[in-house]
Amino acid sequence: MKIIKSIGDNSYLKKRKKFISALINDKPDEIQGVCSTKFMLRITQQPPGQDNYVSSLVGYVTQFSMAKKYNVIGLLAHNYRAGEKFFHLKIGNIIQIIYGDGLTGIYQVQTIEKYRALQPNSPISNFEDLVTNKILTAAELFKHQYTGKHRLVLQVCIQEGTITTAGRMFVTAKFLGGKK
User: Fold this and answer.
1) Of 41, 43, 45, residue with least CA distance to 65
2) Pick from 118, 102, 123, 113: nearest CA to 52
3) Which of 120, 123, 118 is nearest to 135 (CA)?
4) pLDDT confidence of 10, banded at 50, 70, 90?
5) Which residue from 13, 88, 95, 139 has the highest number of Cβ atoms inside 10 Å of its Cβ?
6) What superfamily would CATH give domain 2-178?
7) How far apart are CA 160 and CA 144, in angstroms?
8) Rounded Cα–Cα distance for residues 145 and 151 (Å)
9) How many Å apart are CA 125 and CA 119, to the nearest integer?
10) How big is the chain by its Cα radius of gyration, in Å?
11) The pTM of the whole model exceeds 0.90
12) 32 torsion bin: left (phi>0), alpha (psi -120 to 50), beta (else)
């Protein structure tokens, strides 16, 4: 596939193939991994009823269960763990989602949005868009990021000084093809 060859050199393609092989299991419809030329990360699921859970395991991101309800793939990660890698993404980068059968969905980064949390330690804080200065409630920000057309959204907190939850960054990628 042309898209795959355009996203990395031969060394990357070999590592990607090995990574995908390690993810194949008996759950063909469950997302197992995410990769780009910037990272290769495993995916874990949120425990039932724990919509704020984000894995602290090194090399893992967490699939956001509430986003699934809206046909959006939401991946959450801590900025001091796997989420640190999200900050290296740029508009146009290709990201692949890997399923348990080894098939992939291909996505391309379209937007990178950053917000300041007005109450950093609260999951229901209001947020200020760092470009437009528009204030959004947590519900409005959720709706903006996780409803609408099928897409991939990578979410990570932004650290400011010693406050690890001072803001949020959302990397949104549109679906290009493959499995979804």
Assistant:
1) 45
2) 123
3) 118
4) confident
5) 95
6) Sortase (2.40.260.10)
7) 24
8) 10
9) 5
10) 16
11) yes
12) alpha
Mean pLDDT of all residues belonging to the chain: 93
- Report yes or no: 81 and 163 within 8 Å, Cβ to Cβ: no
**Which residue ranges make up each domain of the chain?**
2-178
| Residue positions counted in the chain | 180
Give the count of beta carbons closer than 10 Å to the beta carbon of residue 82.
Answer: 27
CA-to-CA distance for 38 and 93, rounded, in angstroms? Answer: 9
pLDDT band, residue 102 (cuts 50/70/90): very high
Contact between residue 82 and residue 103 where contact means Cβ atoms under 8 Å apart: no
Is 62 buried (19+), middle (13-18) or exposed (0-12) by CB count in 10 A? buried
Pairing of strands 94-99, 73-77: unpaired
Q: What is the distance between the alpha carbons of residues 154 and 164, in angstroms, rounded to a whole number?
A: 17
In this structure, how many other beta carbons lie within 10 angstroms of the beta carbon of residue 80? 12
Q: What is the mean pLDDT of residues 27-51?
A: 95
Element (H, E) at 175: strand 163-178
